[in-house]
Design goal:
The protein is low in regular secondary structure and 34 residues long. It has one domain. 0% of the residues lie in helices and 12% in strands. It is built from no helices and 2 strands. The protein is extended. The mean pLDDT is 81. InterPro entries: NUDIX_hydrolase-like_dom_sf, NUDIX_hydrolase_dom.
Length: 34
């Protein structure tokens, strides 16, 4: 997670192998077991 304190935007970096390293805005989805 990257969140600069001043005038920032919250971004999350994907950890799943198929799209690892991609930055995106957080979304409302849950995986089984979460």
């Amino acid at each position: 997670i990257f969140y600069p304190k001043k005038d920032g935007v919250l971004l999350v970096q994907e950890a799943k192998a198929e799209c690892r390293g991609t930055w995106y805005l957080p979304a409302g989805r849950m995986e089984p077991g979460e």
